[in-house]
Every structure is written in structure tokens, then in C-alpha cells.
Amino acid sequence: ERGAFFTPDKITEFMANWAIRSAHDRVLEPSAGDAAFLVAAIGRLLQLGTGSDSRPVVEGVEIHAHSARVGRERVRAAGGIAKIQISDFFLVTPQPVYDTVIGNPPYIRYQDFTGDARARSREAAFRAGVSLSGLASSWAAFTIHSALFLKRGGRLALVLPAELLSVNYAAPVRRFLFSHFRDVQVVLFEQQVFPEAEADVVLLLADGYLDGP
């Protein structure tokens, strides 16, 4: 019901290693869950090293307070500090201050993605100049809203349903990505990553955000 399917460590590590280029990168996970990506980000930031004894700081948004608490504890255990805001991500006003936005957006099919949640998501996409079909699942607006938090030149790394590549309702998302990033790559899988979700996924690696300060 939450659309939450937690991501294997090998994938979070791969994505963090690609997305984070500097020990000083500012990192956001917009649907933090148990902070799997923030934990991987801490590992990458520590690997890159800051030259100081301070613990790296990462940021997130999570709608469930319990998950946010668990996420903060996991990041602390990994050697970092997590600032996780408890909120519906679509209610968070984009501030283009992040070098990297990384994560696994909730995947709720359009049949179950209704009411205020759907209205907020479509409004968020529309503010970015993207009009989404009523058939759009939750990840579509989430992807667009996530990009708006990036600085110019930033990187977006998300786990998305493979329907990104094929379905008609995802066409506005594809156009948005191609027009707002210098380079867009997609990683495909030969086996299902989330068998319980009964959906194939891809990894979106979008580099060189063209908007923002």
C-alpha cells in the first residue's frame, strides 16, 4: 500500500558511487524509508574523505516517523548524520541546493494512487511544466519533483519501473529528463530485482542538470 520495496545493498552502493563525486557533495534521498541510500551515501562520502574528523551529513524526506527514526539510527551507525524531514515529499518546496538526489521512489499503481496524494503529485509536476495523465503511477511525478532539488550540473540517480521506457503516460517524464539533463543513461536487468513487486525496474542515471543556480 505504501509502494515501498527496499533496495538491495549492491544497488544502493553502485548508485551512490556513481552519483557522489566529492566528499563535499550535498545529498538528498526524497523517500528515505529505512535510509538505504543514505547509508550507501555515507559510505561513499567517507571513502572520498573530507580531511577532517567531522561526520558527513546527508538529508532525506520520509512521510512515516518510525521509518525516519530507523533511518537516522542506521546512518549514525554507518558513521554519519542524517537530517530527515518528516513530510509528504510533494509538500516540500524544491530548493535547488543539492549535488545529488538519489533513491527509490514509491511505486503505487494508478488504480491505488488516488485522492489528495494524486492531486499533490500532479500539482508538483505541473509546477515543473509537466502535465501527467490520470494513468500515471506515483513514481512519475516523484521523478520530476526530485530533479527540481538539484543544483545546475547535479546528478539524479533513481530506481524506477521499467515502464519508464515504454508506456505512454511516461512520455512527458522522458521528455523532461532529455530536456533537463546533459546525459541520461538507463541500466537494465536480466532478472527481477524486486520479485514481490511483480515489476521490472531500471536504474536512471541522469547527469548534468541544466536548470538551477
Give an account of the 3D structure.
With 213 residues, the chain is an alpha/beta fold. 33% of the residues lie in helices and 23% in strands. It contains six helices and seven strands. The chain has a seven-stranded mixed β-sheet, with helices on both faces. Helix 1 (9-19) packs across helix 2 and helix 4 (115-127) runs parallel beside helix 5. The longest helix has 13 residues, at 36-48. The chain is globular and about 50 Å long. The relative contact order is 0.16.
Task: Write the topology of this structure.
Elements: H1 9-19, E1 27-29, H2 36-48, E2 57-62, H3 65-77, E3 81-86, E4 98-103, H4 115-127, H5 138-147, E5 150-161, H6 171-180, E6 181-187, E7 201-209
Parallel strand pairs: 1-2, 1-4, 2-3, 4-5
Antiparallel strand pairs: 5-7, 6-7
Helix pairs in contact: 1-2, 4-5
Question: Which spans have pLDDT < 50 for at least 5 consecutive residues?
Answer: none
Helix content: 25-40%
Secondary structure: number of strands: 7
- Radius of gyration, CA atoms, in whole angstroms: 16 Å
Major β-sheet strand ordering:
3-2-1-4-5-7-6
Q: Describe the main β-sheet briefly.
A: 7 strands, mixed
Shape: globular
Average of the residue pLDDT scores: 86
Distance between the termini: 37 Å
Work out the helix count. 6
Class computed from helices, strands and strand pairing: alpha/beta
Reading the helices and strands in chain order gives HEHEHEEHHEHEE
Beta-strand portion reads 15-25%
